[in-house]
Design brief:
This protein is α/β, with parallel strands linked by helices. The protein contains 11 helices and 9 strands. The strands form 3 sheets. The chain has a 5-stranded mixed sheet. Helix 3 runs parallel beside helix 5. The longest helix is centred in the middle third of the chain and has 40 residues. Pfam families: TPR_8.
Length: about 350
């Protein structure tokens, strides 16, 4: 009997051939029935999508239909997987459908849609193009093609912005390093936000500067050189000839180059970018130690900002921070005696 024949063997008698034909007919009938039942389950809605997938899978397992019919089954299963949000499975099914029939327009559409959901915009565009070559007036494919191309264009623009931001940040890291500045982890973020230095086209480094008035813990963030009167200075002690600037020596954790780059990219379009091309080993950040650590160092007003930032014991906490005190204030004596500490 044909049921006992080994796989791949040739029937020896007409009876065995007849048995094989009958078995093939039964399996074909079962596959067709399962396909139709799957289609009915799809029409019944989301609660029956799993049943539809089961029917299409069982129909494929019969291995009794033509390549063209199997292509339809794979495309149908891809459709249901799309409805369920199983985009990777949908793409795999649509790709199988295309392998079996390169004229299956629905398979190209579903492959394009699944690839688009997965962010594979190049593949999605290719499937749209191949589908439209078969069916130039297919409205669904034309609409999807427009959407995919628009996303690709925006993606390319985004990548260009990211690349530009990373390039500028790397240049800034190099300048900061070459000038011998020690950049530490940002402090006083509640006052400075995401302010960072800017390198202009002439190679001039522009720093925003935070001034902290230690006596009253008020602050000014200097982005330009306009400075309004201090409303809280009722005694007019903080005049130009009376104020002195200080920084605290050796305070803060030094950042590695990679951390500096991430800091400079924070808040930009490239904040999530991984700098894959920079594979140099990074040193772990270390707490800076100086013989004068923690002491208040008076800023010599005759020095440039570069000179001050270049001081061996000054760790820049994200952006330059200076404490402003008035030598006419009662607070001045406590401050210079080291009896006051930053909260």
């Amino acid at each position: 009997m044909a049921l006992w024949m080994e796989q791949g063997s040739v029937p020896a008698t007409e009876s065995e051939q007849a048995d094989l034909d009958a078995i093939a007919a039964i399996k074909e009938s079962a596959a067709v029935e399962l396909k139709e039942k799957g289609n009915e389950y799809v029409k019944l809605g989301k609660k029956h999508y799993a049943d539809a997938i089961d029917c299409y899978t069982r129909a494929l397992n019969q291995k009794a239909l033509s390549d063209s019919d199997h292509s339809v089954l794979y495309a149908n299963r891809a459709h249901v997987n799309l409805l369920l949000g199983n985009h990777r499975r949908a793409l795999e099914d649509a790709q199988e459908a295309i392998k079996l029939s390169t004229t299956n327009v629905k398979a190209f559409y579903r492959a394009a849609k699944a690839a688009s959901f997965l962010g594979l915009l190049g593949e999605a565009a290719s499937y749209c193009q191949r589908g439209l070559e078969l069916s130039p007036e297919n409205e669904e494919l034309k609409k999807l093609s427009l959407q995919v191309n628009a996303r690709r264009e925006e993606h390319e623009k985004h990548n260009a912005r990211v690349s530009k931001a990373v390039s500028k940040a790397k240049e800034l890291v190099s300048v900061i390093d070459n000038r011998g500045y020690k950049l530490g982890k940002a402090m006083y973020r509640e006052l400075t936000g995401l302010k960072k230095p800017i390198l202009d086209k002439s190679g001039i480094l522009h720093w925003p500067v935070l001034l902290l008035y230690a006596e009253v813990m008020s602050s000014d963030l200097i982005e330009d050189f306009y400075s309004p009167p201090l409303e809280w200075d009722k005694k007019h002690e903080y005049t130009r000839d009376a104020v002195e600037l200080y920084y605290q020596a050796g305070i803060g954790a030094l950042m590695s180059k990679k951390e500096v780059l991430r800091h400079l990219l924070e808040g930009t379009v490239a904040s999530e970018a991984l700098c894959e091309e920079d594979n140099d080993a990074e040193q772990s950040p270390q707490t800076f130690i100086s013989p004068r650590s923690g002491k208040w160092i008076k800023v010599n007003e005759k020095k440039t900002l570069h000179d001050v930032l270049h001081q061996p014991d000054y760790v820049i906490p994200g952006i330059p921070v200076f404490f402003v005190v008035s030598n006419r204030s009662k607070f001045y004596k406590d401050f210079t005696a080291g009896k006051w500490a930053s909260p």
